[in-house]
Amino acid sequence: MLHVTDYLWEPSRYPIPPVCVLFGGEVFLKFEAMKHLRNQVLDAEDAEFSFTRFEGGSLSWPRLVEELSTVAMFGGGRRLVLVEDADTFVSKHRPELEDYVASPSAGSVLLLQLQTFASNTNLYKKVLAKGFPIDCSAVAEKHLPKWIQRWSKQRHQTGIDPAAAELLVQLAGNEMGLLDQEMAKLSLLVEKNGTITTGLVEASVGSWRSRTTFEMLDFALEGKTAEALRQLAQLVAAGENPVGILAQIAASLRKMAAATRLILDAEKNGKKLPVPAALAQAGVNKFFLEKTERHLRALGRARGMKLLGWLLETDLALKGGSRADPRFLLETFIIRLSHPALKGR
After folding, report:
1. CATH topology for 2-135?
2. Which residues pair with residue 37 across a beta bridge?
3. Where are the domains positioned within the chain?
């Protein structure tokens, strides 16, 4: 079984078959794997036209088959069909999926995003034999410092001392998305080919820019659009990298998206999951539960379910997928979060 960290170290080593499954609870790693799979499957020029995203809870089997059978609009490339929160969909259509894995469409890649994927099921065994299952469980805390050292070097082109990596876990916690945010910020503070030291971690983790970034997010989620945009302007003027700004707020928003999914899944099963319990399951620290609950209620479930899609869209645009000014892209993202007129869009 391939763990997502092994895939992310060198995605090009792994050819992408017609059926892929991302499963597990580490939202950041799952998000990163989804980005790489998309880049491997789709040609950059026609990616926008060859990618379809479905919500598993409302998707029918005939609609999925229709989409998988559709030919790519341009050239001879493949299409990517993503089914988010697909646990309920898989439970309903397990026999059909087993048949599809045995004889998939050659022109499309089906990507299922699951919380759990039991290894004793026929579907799991068939995907393991002919597809590409990726375990997106979290890295054990004792292994995080070594992961930080390698991730920082590969993803942020910056080395980090072993002691500094251990200190970063102590100060920032074990949430991998947040650790990546901190690495992104720290990498901007060292010279080319430099190394992140314990002194730099002590001085920078929880710095003014971090506080301003999270204040910006608070204002946006409270509907105070003008104030959120003012904070963004301060960060840009201070030289903060737009990719880094998005990275810093992404972990909090992914947890809100995960909590929304947990609440909706519970309702589909005839149960009621309180918002604080859903946020706790999604990994929100108990000290921030009250504030995050208030923000999630203000955001609403419709926009909560769109958070991951918005994050992916903005991340790809900031990293070269759009010619628009990076500040404009971030402003658009903030307005989506905060402006009442854009609720549900």
Report:
1. Rossmann fold (3.40.50)
2. none
3. 2-135, 141-206, 229-342
Whole-prediction pTM: 0.63
Higher pLDDT, 64 or 285: 64
pLDDT of residue 342: 46
- Using the predicted structure, report yes or no on whether residue 127 has a pLDDT greater than 90: yes
CATH-assigned architecture of domain 141-206: Orthogonal Bundle (1.10)
More confident residue, 178 or 137: 137
Under DSSP, the state recorded for 131 is S
The DSSP annotation for 31-85 comes to HHHHHHHHHHHS-GGGGGGSEEEEEGGG--HHHHHHHHTSPPSSTT--EEEEEES
> Coil, helix or strand for 274?
coil
Residues 77-99 pLDDT 10s: 789 999 999 999 999 999 999 99
Q: Are strands 108-114 and 51-55 parallel, antiparallel or unpaired?
A: unpaired
List the strands of the sheet with 108-114, edge to edge.
2-3, 132-135, 19-23, 108-114, 79-84, 51-55
- Of 263, 248, 149, nearest to 206 by C-alpha is 248
- Report the phi/psi class of residue 292: left, alpha or beta, with left for phi > 0 and alpha for psi in -120 to 50: alpha
d(CA 264, CA 57): 9
- Beta strands (DSSP E) in 240-341 are none
Helix/strand/coil for 12 = helix
Give the three-class secondary structure for 272.
coil
Residue 3: the pLDDT is: 96
Do domains 141-206 and 229-342 share one topology? The answer is: no
Poorest-pLDDT segment among 19-28, 131-140, 170-179: 170-179
Name the residue with higher pLDDT: 234 or 64: 64
Helix axes 307-316, 242-268, angle to 10 degrees: 160
Class in CATH terms, 229-342 = mainly alpha
User: What's the full length of the chain, in residues?
Assistant: 345
